[in-house]
Amino acid sequence: MYELNKEKRLCKNREYQLVYRHGRSVVNRLAVLYVLPRSPKQPTRIGFVTGKKIGCAVERNRCRRLMKEVYRLHQYELKDGYDLVLIGRGYLKQVGYQEAERSILQLFRRANVWKKRCE
């Protein structure tokens, strides 16, 4: 149920480049989120990026795993019809799961891809 299938990921370089060029960005201390709207009938796809400024491969992989886990657990709370690219920043390697989750969810809300809660 909470898996990250290939249909829900950006796989090709040109898909990432399209989101970078035509999408809008939302930034905070831990990450940058690029958002490109698509058809509302299509599922939301996401890609995860960490640059070499973060550190060695071990640290970059840890940051990517952290971002993937936050997305994996909250993927059904996001609206359909978007391409997202989540880029980890240097401070991400110094925080734990709780702070990373709070920060990434804040990015989703500010980018307006978070579903409104029915109350």
Automatic annotation (TrEMBL):
The family note in this entry says: Belongs to the RnpA family.
Entry GO CC: ribonuclease P complex
Its BP terms in the Gene Ontology are: tRNA 5'-leader removal
Specify whether Translocase is a keyword of the entry. no
Highest taxon, organism lineage: Bacteria
Function text: RNaseP catalyzes the removal of the 5'-leader sequence from pre-tRNA to produce the mature 5'-terminus. It can also cleave other RNA substrates such as 4.5S RNA. The protein component plays an auxiliary but essential role in vivo by binding to the 5'-leader sequence and broadening the substrate specificity of the ribozyme.
Which Gene Ontology terms cover its molecular function? 3'-tRNA processing endoribonuclease activity; ribonuclease P activity; tRNA binding
Top EC class per UniProt?
Answer: hydrolase
From what organism does this protein derive? Megasphaera hexanoica
Know the name of this protein?
Ribonuclease P protein component
Q: For this protein, what is the EC number?
A: 3.1.26.5
Q: Which InterPro entries does the annotation name? A: Ribosomal_Su5_D2-typ_SF, Ribsml_uS5_D2-typ_fold_subgr, RNase_P
The record's keywords, sorted A to Z, are: Endonuclease, Hydrolase, Nuclease, RNA-binding, tRNA processing
Q: Which reaction does it catalyse?
A: Endonucleolytic cleavage of RNA, removing 5'-extranucleotides from tRNA precursor
